[in-house]
Prior knowledge:
Largest sheet: 6 strands, mixed
Shape: globular
Strand content: 25-35%
CATH architecture of the largest domain: 7 Propeller
Pfam families: WD40
Family: Belongs to the THOC3 family.
Region (Disordered): 283-378
Keywords: Repeat, WD repeat
InterPro entries: Tex1/THOC3 (IPR040132), WD40/YVTN_repeat-like_dom_sf (IPR015943), WD40_repeat_dom_sf (IPR036322), WD40_rpt (IPR001680)
Number of helices: 5
CATH superfamily of the largest domain: YVTN repeat-like/Quinoprotein amine dehydrogenase
CATH class of the largest domain: Mainly Beta
CATH topology of the largest domain: Methylamine Dehydrogenase, Chain H
Amino acid sequence: MSDNNAGIDTFPYNTHTARQLAPPKFSNVTEIRGLVKLVRSIAWSCDGSRAATAGEYKDIHVWDNTLHIKSAKPLPASSNPSPHSNHVTSVSWSPTDPNILLSADKTFSHGSVIAVWDLTSPSQPIATFKTPGDVISLSWHPSGHHFAAVYPKGLHDVVDFYRFSPSSIPSASSSPSPPAGKWEKRTDIVLGGSSPGIGSEEINSLRFNNSGQLVCAVSNDGSIGAWLYPLELLEGENMEAPVELEKVESIAVEDTIEDQAGTAGGAASEAVVEKETDVDMANGEETGEAPSATFIPEETAKEGPQEAEGVAAEAEPEERVAGDETASKDDVEMTENTPHSSKQPTPSRPPSPAVPPSADIPETATPPAPIPAPKATHLTRVAHTTPYAASLLSLSFDPLGRWFAVGGQDALLSLIDTRDWICEKNWDVCSSAIRHTAFSSDGEFIAVGGDDLFIYILSTHASQVVSKIPIPATLNCLVWHPTKNILAWCHSDKKGAPLWYVVQQEV
Length: 507
């Protein structure tokens, strides 16, 4: 759209003049020089007193509000080794603490490292976390005590959540210092992967809403989803309790013991019947009665002489056992005094008393299996809609909580009401994919950019294009100052000196 047609599809009653405000005008672009590596990400501190830039090959710098290279300090300080091993692609300041900064790198093959920095001691990060995939997006919770990281894992995108766990022991130092505690990864909740509501789609952008009650994401299938986010760790009925697992295992062990006892009892009773039969056969020889002949089934005899001989051979021990009573008693005594051998005949003696099953438990029972850790609970999805046919790549929230903006591959920017999820406004000023959107601190403007060679600053009330800024390459980052209408950005052009840029509204 040309500048002459910038007023088309606007709402005159919502213009700055109609609202008795001065027409907005932005100054010329200011180049920030001094870096030697390409800038990939920019972030402002919550009080606006500092800015952070991240670049290629471990480069992180913190700038004061003068934005002069002499004031820029590298992280880590004092020439200490960096926790990152490659390009740092994301930086993000805490929304409540101007000294806490997040950074994440992209190592292409070994996953990423997320570092949490406390600028009161910049020599090394206060916490580091490894992820199996390159971090796509970092997002802070409004409380500043939680953040989320999105990274690919196999065919799915996964979201890990982290929280600050305060220490129960107060710090003994009287000097001003950050609250005692540590950052830790949450293992009680999960989002993404094969969880319901995401499936195999990619999570291209994720943000917490202004209240922190919801975590929202846009996906490759053109959908927008929202899930409830619990601040406290989920315990008890919301997770698989180890006690229940112990009960299930104990019940299974008891059933196995009862089955073993029943099998042993049945085998003992069969042995008693066999031994009584042997004694009767021996008594029959003493009285002169002829013992019964060995019986071979007709089917076995028809199968072949070898199998029939085998059956007869199995029956021979019974004939040998049917001797006189004195011989059988001698066999019993020899069996007791000599080692057991499979070739010795089975003695004919009264059955021994049954051993109680409890006596065999220590010998046969296997050690209990280790109790598995409770599985993470999938976040509860409370809203889902698919307003786009193309992939959605960007998501941002209005600081005043009125709207959220989404943009994607179809170059269409939409402003959606946060209460009813109804699209209120659309812009088609871009000609290529929208990858970055950002609201100004007062909610008057929204900046948009991506693969297009322009950055557009739009009025959220009048829907008109306020400014159109040319850029030489695709956009890497776009972010507003937290208290002033100052916009910073960087692009992917590697020609010339590495630069990042700032433009501000003139008063």
